[in-house]
Design brief:
By secondary structure, the protein is mostly helical. It is built from 1 helix and no strands. 83% of the residues lie in helices and 0% in strands. The radius of gyration is 20 Å and the shape is rod-shaped.
Length: 47
């Protein structure tokens, strides 16, 4: 089965879901990185 075989509204829904998942994953990763950076700064200041 080809992706073109799906109705266009289904393709659009999949695309939107994919983009939403990817953007939220990106923001979660960057949030996590910010927390790690803050912990590292705290450790450097304490040490």
């Amino acid at each position: 089965m080809e992706i073109d075989d799906f109705p266009s509204h289904i393709i659009e829904e999949i695309k939107n879901t994919w983009e939403t998942w990817n953007s939220s994953r990106l923001s979660m990763d960057s949030l996590h990185l910010n927390e790690i950076e803050e912990m590292n700064l705290d450790n450097i200041q304490e040490g």
